Amino acid sequence: MPAVIRTERLRKVYGSTVAVDALDLSVEQGEIFGLLGPNGAGKTTTVAMLATIVRPTSGRAEVDGCSVVDAPGRVRRSVGIVFQESSLDTVLTGRENLELSARLYGVPGDRRRRIGELLDLVDLSARADTLVRTYSGGMKRRLELVRGLLHRPRVLFLDEPTLGLDPQSRRVIWDYIGRMAATEGTTIVLTTHYMEEAEEMCDRIAIIDRGRIILEGTPEALRRQAGGDRVLVEGGPFDEAAIRTLPFVLRFQAGERTAVVTVDRAARDLPALLAALGPLTSLEVRAPSLNDVFLEHTGRGIRDEVASSSWMEDAMRHAQGGR
Predict the structure, then answer these.
(1) What is the DSSP string of 258-315?
(2) Is residue 230 classed exposed, middle or buried when 0-12, 13-18 and 19+ CB atoms within 10 A define those classes?
(3) Spatial separation of the C-alpha atoms in residues 298 and 319, rounded to whole Å
(4) Suppose 187 and one of 4, 37, 123, 318 were both cysteines; which one would form an S-S bond, judging by CB atoms 3.0 to 4.6 Å apart?
(5) What separation in angstroms does the CA of 267 have from each of 247, 270, 273?
(6) Across the chain, where does the E strand assignment appear?
(7) Helices 219-226/290-298 angle, 10° precision
(8) For residues 220 and 8, what is the distance between their CA atoms, to the nearest angstrom?
(9) pLDDT tens for residues 88-134?
(10) What is the pLDDT at residue 1?
(11) pLDDT in tens, 242-275
(12) Residue 9 predicted with pLDDT over 90
């Protein structure tokens, strides 16, 4: 498949701060590509450069075959953007919001038919002619998504698309995103702090820290790099020396009354480990996660924090010379 997004040593510097450092990316048509990392890692600035909101300091970036520096207008016609914060007009109906966007984008052909198809797709036809201010958070998010798709973009940028939604609404949004990539061939680039969503939904993930990509690959391939199952226990005191001598123990990290033991294969190794640990008050076994991968390579976990502002707000603040 051809690369719809390609960057070569893409870099952005704000004063003495290197926000993005020599970033090389290649994203294929129809992929769901995730940018995962802690707040301040460089995700915000990367997406802002690809969407032509922020100009790179150096390097190259192309979206749908067009340079983000030399042909920003052509890039903008190829992309759709769904912001973290709602930008819907709440005094208009859902249909009126889509009609306004269709006119602004110059959507060709039968606009009403296109709008009707999208409203049906996200199950909003019954509420299309009611004011958006009466919509639930999940309904607004679905309307935001289809608004970004009205002009059939080759690339859709999603900033924390399910932030603040209940689990049921998040599931609906993710099911729709998956269908969209499969049926429309839309390339989707998203930022998220929900690691379980990145693991489940993304075809590939780039884990970013301090402006650099430290790992890139499929979720399964990245998890394999963490190695072993995690056994989380509470109780103790633990005989650390004895536990570390067990041949299947890959790592032992202990607190005052808790410990995390990484073992080769929990289904096989758990009985012997429990005998060495002694009396416990709680036990949890889990497979390695993307947070474990990040921890392995940086010595700290990805902070599952909700950003205080969206990437658009951050980008605009930087562009205006703020910090």
Answers:
(1) EEEEEES-HHHHHHHHHHHH-SEEEEEEE---HHHHHHHHHSSPPP----SS-HHHHH
(2) buried
(3) 29
(4) 4
(5) 15, 6, 11
(6) 3-14, 17-28, 32-36, 58-63, 66-67, 79-82, 155-159, 187-191, 204-209, 212-217, 229-235, 249-254, 258-263, 280-286
(7) 50
(8) 26
(9) 999 999 999 999 999 988 887 788 999 998 898 888 999 999 999 99
(10) 63
(11) 999 999 999 898 887 899 999 998 989 999 999 9
(12) yes
Instruction: Please name which of 11, 18, 38 lies closest in space to residue 306, comparing C-alpha atoms.
Output: 38
For 43, residues 6+ apart whose C-beta sits below 8 A from its C-beta are 35, 36, 37, 191, 208, 311
Distances (CA, A) of 207 to 23, 192, 215, 269: 12, 11, 5, 30
Kindly indicate the confidence band of residue 231, based on its pLDDT and cuts at 50, 70 and 90: very high
Question: Which residue in the block uniquely carries the two structure tokens 């590939």?
Answer: 204
Inter-residue contact 60 to 11 (CB < 8 Å): no
Q: What is this structure's pTM?
A: 0.78
Closest-CA residue to 159 (of 141, 135, 175) = 141
Instruction: Give the rounded distance of the alpha carbon of 274 from its chain centre.
Output: 37
Q: Is 51 helix (H, G, I), strand (E, B) or coil?
A: coil
CA-CA-CA-CA dihedral for 178, 183, 189, 190, to nearest 10 = -30
> Closest Cα to residue 99, out of 80, 75, 155, 89?
89
